[in-house]
Write a structure and sequence with these properties.
Shape: globular
CATH topology: Acetoacetate decarboxylase-like
Largest sheet: 15 strands, mixed
Structural class: mainly beta
CATH architecture: Beta Barrel
Radius of gyration: 19 Å
Number of domains: 1
Oligomer: single chain
Number of helices: 2
Number of strands: 15
Distance between the termini: 47 Å
Length: about 240
């Protein structure tokens, strides 16, 4: 006599495999994250090619490179590099995320599945030498995608760092030739503990059609900041189907 399966939907875990999920339930907690943020003017024509039609670039077209060390999170320590485009959605300021690289498979899977963050695995290193802070990203190892260097010079009031909500394009592949896509907004709960500004620059030396970070090129550096922060990632919200 056959036996019916007992794994019903209400018993599913938050990710696959549902009986032994790879990811935990939200929120995800981050403590003492160290962020170097480089805001710069970019090439608007090139950047627009990577921006969904529901969004509009600012004038001047502005991008941000963020290099981050996470010494402690509830999904383990890892490093991350993020490239965003400052834009508007129905007149409201947001930042669209075309590129992210991380050093952890759990961080990659969690960001892609829950939010649509376009994460890939890469080699990301940070250097502290004398008064200089620097970070670089390679994919594959030895092929440098981007780098950033700065010198923290003056403290700022932590509350002066205003971080825009992230918008991601999540695509869910269909096994039968169908595909679902949606714009998702994520607003992490940031608490900046320390903030510095100073001189610095960022570069995208590696021209790669597989990871085209160079297409959001640097025309002029606007600001360089260094922050230490705690934050949580909670549920995102769907803005619209695409």
């Amino acid at each position: 006599m056959s036996t019916q399966g007992r794994l019903s939907k209400e018993r599913f875990g938050p990710s696959m495999p549902v009986h032994a999920p790879f990811l935990q339930n939200l929120p995800i907690y981050f403590r003492n994250a160290r962020l170097a943020l480089f805001q710069y003017v970019t090439d608007g024509e090139q950047a627009a090619e990577l921006l969904p039609t529901a969004l509009d670039l600012t004038d001047p077209p502005t991008a941000v490179l963020v290099l981050i060390e996470y010494p402690w999170t509830t999904i383990g320590p890892y490093n991350e590099a993020i490239q965003t485009l400052v834009c508007t959605y129905k007149g409201r300021a947001v930042q669209y995320v075309p590129h992210i690289l991380v050093t952890s498979d759990v961080a990659m899977a969690g960001g892609r599945e829950a939010y649509g963050y376009p994460k890939k695995i890469a080699h990301i290193e940070f250097v502290r030498e004398n008064e200089i802070l620097a970070g670089y990203v390679e994919r594959p190892r030895g092929f440098r995608i981007c780098s950033g260097v700065m010198r923290p010079e003056r403290p700022l009031e932590p509350s002066s760092l205003s971080l825009l909500p992230n918008v991601c394009l999540r695509v869910i592949p269909g096994s039968a030739g169908t595909q679902k896509a949606e714009l998702i907004e994520i607003s992490p709960d940031f608490r900046v503990k320390e903030l510095w500004t100073g001189s610095g620059s960022c570069h995208f030396p590696g021209v790669s059609d597989l990871d085209p970070w160079h297409r959001i090129s640097v025309r002029r550096i606007l600001s360089c900041t260094y922050a230490v922060a705690d934050f949580e990632l909670t549920e995102g919200r769907i803005l619209e189907a695409v």
